[in-house]
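Long-time lurker. I teach an intro course on protein structure, and each term I like to show students one example going from raw sequence to a predicted 3D structure in token notation. This year I'd like something fresh instead of my usual example. Would anyone be willing to generate the tokens for the chain below so I can use it in lecture? Attribution to the forum is fine with me.
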Amino acid sequence: MGRVRWIEISAAGALVATGLEAAILQRKYATFTGGYLQPSYLQGLEVPVFLLLAAFLNATAVALPAPLAIRLTRGLRGGRRFAAATLLAAAPLLGCMLVFLGVFAYAVDVLAFRTGWSATAASVCVAALCAAGAGGVLWAAAYLPARDEERRQSRGRVLLRSAVLVVVALGTFAAAGLASPRLQDQLVRTTAGGWTAVAGRFATDFDRDAWDWVRAPFDTAPFDAAVHPFAVDRPGNGIDENGINGDLAAPGDFAAERFEPVRFARRPDVVLFVLETFRYGNLDAEVDGRPATPVLRGLVDGGAVLGPAYSHNGFTVESLVHLLTGSLTETGDTSLFDDFAENGYATAVVSGEDETFGDTLTKSGMARAEHFVDARDDADLRYTASAAPSSLAVPCTVVARNVERMLQKLEGDPRPLFAYVNFQDCHFPYHHAGLEPLLADDPVSRDEIVPANAARVERTYLNTVANVDAAVGRVLAAWERARGSRPAFVIVGDHGESFFFDGLLGHGIDLVGEQMRIPFLAGGLPVECTFPLGLSEVRFTLRRALTRAGETPDVATDPEKWVFQHTGPIGAPRRLGASSARGGLIFDLDAGTWRTWGDPAPGLAADRERILTLWEQILLHRAR
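-- Reply from a regular --
Happy to contribute to a lecture. Here you go:
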């Protein structure tokens, strides 16, 4: 091989990077087949188009440092020089890929989990391996004796070529957004695509409102920072700042979210169970004629109130904030922990997850609990490979044991007790080695969670549901032994789960009932409420049950009542909608279209404008 050319290096580097990145994206996001929390996986012709676009962006990223790599390797000949120059030019892209796609962190977690080493020791080991590989490349490029000279390229020509490549990359990326937001969503997950999005924002966000001409949705008013997608719509100014639903007529009334201190008329012990990924239908589910929730069914048979509720968002952090603060706008500064503490209660948190994830600890008021235990305290007993806050979880048996220890610690404390108890086991991948085969002894492995195995996946999930159901029973029994009587209780899920319904696996992807409908179960309390409930109504319902004069529950179902919902962050949602008792209405902001699921309330279709208006009012309230 004679002269080494930048275009050859770029093509070779892009081929290696695209192949590696495609494998990582498929493993992490199921980009090409669909999988957990993957609503926008690529199908049909989108796959080769994505690979071509990703390869072009990667080639651009390799081409920029290629001249320097060519000069550094001028002491090598033939194939060795081509290989060394390609590795050097691709090194920045490949290195950032390891960080950007979480490969380094994943390797550290797996090594620590498999060997029992500390996270620090595992990090040092993985970093040393990476450094050794990089050092080998640099040694080969810089220290082998020089044997031929490469003609010095014109600095101006290199700069011009680089500028042209960057402009073409930006245009290609923007065109992908125009053609298919789903395609662009996947390109953003690539390292070069992420760089392109950042460069595009820097270059075309002229008014610095964080919206640009490169990534969809595009900024239609590039020189007016007040007008852009998802802007706060200021009422009555004649301007539709976000381009949705016209100018907002009036601000919303969120006075109900200002919870003033109340005095409880009764002070029983109260335990609030939150069951991760727990669908409303689990209460009736069976496997081979055996109920999945015999404990919960028994509570209902014993007089507990059961009704449908909905998550507002479909994700855990937001759901817990809604639940504990009673604030749909997520702006509340008090929570249930404050309500109970003000009424002389001891307060406790016993959780199977890491409550620092998403700052749940602070946002929900958990940080103010007197007694606190979460998964971080038993990280060595976790069933997850990763100890990252987003993944860390411990079995329901560990949580139940921690509740028993908390009760022993509080023995002799004359105060009534409020405890928040969280079980994580039903979360994807729906099984771990610490579960008992109560309903099924053939759980699916993570790699077997595919549409063809949907029935087995749900069977595996229901076996985990049965284990969590048993853990609820264990906690209630331990409480009765330790405190002399069964506590009052509220049991809710944080969100549901779709098992390949409409091809989707997971939650928070769409607003259909499988992903959003959850149970509300209450016993030992004279609850007064109207179903369906939103999670943000639970705090008000519980306060009302403890302050009202009546001694018996007073519940009803209103077929016209609906619960506001959204997917994605409230400030930039992908879907808005509302659900009534048996169905709902969904607005897709990407397509600008409405659709229904189930059997929505007859009046819900007429409330489309109210749904959009409520969302705009929430954004306005949050901005104040």
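Some talking points for your students: The mean pLDDT is 88. The chain has 18 helices and 18 strands.
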